[in-house]
Each structure stands twice: as structure tokens, then as C-alpha cells.
UniProtKB/TrEMBL annotation:
Any Pfam family the entry gives: Peptidase_M23
InterPro entries: Cell_wall_metabolism_enzyme, Dup_hybrid_motif, M23ase_b-sheet_dom
Keyword entries, A-Z: Hydrolase, Membrane, Transmembrane, Transmembrane helix
Name recorded for this polypeptide: Murein DD-endopeptidase MepM/ murein hydrolase activator NlpD
Domain M23ase beta-sheet core: 201-296
GO molecular function, one term: metalloendopeptidase activity
Bilayer-crossing regions: 33-51
Keyword Transmembrane helix: yes
Amino acid sequence: MRKAGYHFNSDTLSFDKIESSLRKRLWRLFKKFFSSFSLAIVMLYLVYAFIDSPKEKLLKRKYEEVLTQYSLLSNKVEHLDNVLKDMESRDDNIYRVIFETDPIPSSIRRAGSGGVDQYEHLRQIDNADLIIGTAKKIDELSKAIYIQSKSFDKIEELAKNKIDMLASIPAILPVSLKDKNTHQVTSSFGYRMHPIYKTPKFHAGMDFTGTIGTPIYATGNGVVIESKFDKGYGRHVVIDHGFSYKTLYAHMDKILAKKGQKIKRGDVIGYLGNTGLSTGPHLHYEVRKNDKPIDPINFYFNDLTPDEFELLVETANNTGQSMD
Ligand SMILES: [Zn+2]
């Protein structure tokens, strides 16, 4: 109940009750309401500005957590990148060296991720630098991993090829030299006095003496491309080993290998003899690369110890005329 207002009347010396109009009362009411309302707004503003609500506190904490997790994720990506760099370096400097292949240029390995535009939509987000940086790193990593996996495919193929090559190229003696009494190198690769013409002539292989009927071994995997008799080489076999290598086994007494036959290293392809242009029972053995004879002495690495090899080189160097 509102208190009534009074006005002192000096004429009547009494208090007259002030009768206020409805409009005036409403106006007073409105002013009071307005001032209270303004005060409330100011108070609310101060509360919201300086004190967080429990909900806000929770959201802020969650935001901080997300940010921390993102930083951790970014560190993990960085770590993965270092692991991959290590793999790339081993690939370039070890695996590719073993298989005689060029390293992958870094311009290909670490090609850029194609302009900044693709990350533009992330610019609006808070902590855009952190998020763009991580997104960029993950994209680069994905590309580098793809290139690395392709490289390993290539290395695998080269390794398979290398195993095949190691099994194919000549790598053992065509006759067993374990019994020194029956087999010896009597002539090596190079210019030798020809036994029949008595003039220096290029000897394109190595001669191994032995008794007729001694087994002759294929020195690497391959396919027999010649198995026949002619006046010079007598009964002879030529094996194509692939990888541009061929071997010739001449003056055989008897041939076992047939033309077109697949041969494994160590298979007996025939027996030592004295057929064709030959001055005594022996095997004339040639190694050819791109159809050019090369010194067979470098192709016995599978079955000779370093000492045996040295002895063989010494014997080969001291030989005089060839036997064919
Ligand atoms: Zn010879």
C-alpha cells in the first residue's frame, strides 16, 4: 500500500492530502521499474563478464583438453615422420645401393602438398595454425608413405631378380679340382701359344685336364642352347644363363644335356673327352658376357676358399700353351 502524500496549506494551516493523477503514479512506477531493471542488467553483465557459469567452466575445460590432445597428436605425427625419414634414408643408402639402383630424389619423395588453398577452410577455426600445420603434415606423410611403399615393391622385385641372377650366373668350377692328380688348370684366359699352329693365339677360356669320363658340371642355372659336335669344339654344350651370360663346355667325350633343356647349377651335362681340335683329354670352358668371352677365373666364387682361389690364379698364370 502506497503512503499518501501531504501538502502544508499556509492559508488553512493544515495538511492537505495530495491527490496524484493516475498518469503521474504510472510514471513514478515506470521510473522505479526502469531503474531496477537497469541495475539488474548491469549486475548480470558484471556476473557474466567476470564469473563463469558451471556450464562455461565445463566447456572451457573440454576445449583445453581437445587442444592438449591435438598437440599430442601433432607430436605423434612428427614422430612418425621421423620414423619414415629413417626408412627413406635406409632405402636410399642401403637397399638401393645393394641392388645397384639410384636413390629416389627428395623432390619426388617430399613433393609439396599442392598450394595453401586446400587448407583455407580451416583458417576460420581457433588455433588455425596448429590445425593446418597438423593437417598439412598428415597429407605430406600419406604421400611419402605411398612413395616409400612403391619403392619397397621395387626393391622386392629387384631382390627376387637378384636371387634369380645369383643362381644363374656362372659361379662354380665346371670340373671338381678336389683331386689334384686327376684335374689341373693347364691353360688360362689370354694370349697363349697355340699347340698346333705354334703361334701366339688368344685363348678365350680355361683348360682343365683330366681323365676321359670325368663329370662336367653346369656352372649356373640356364637353358641349353647348343648341344652338338663340330670340328673345332668337338662335342660341346652352350648354356644361356640369362642376364647376358653364356658358358661353353668343349671337347666332351659324351654329352648328356639336350638342346632346350633347363639346367640347374651343378647338373652333370656331359663327360670330359678329347673330341674336336684338342691335343689331349681336357675341358675347354668359356664364360661369355654379351657374347664376348671374359676371364672365367672371376666366376668360381661359390666353391673356392680364398686360399684355393689364390692357388688357382697362380697355376693359371704359370700355364704355357693351350690345349686347343
Ligand atoms: Zn682351351
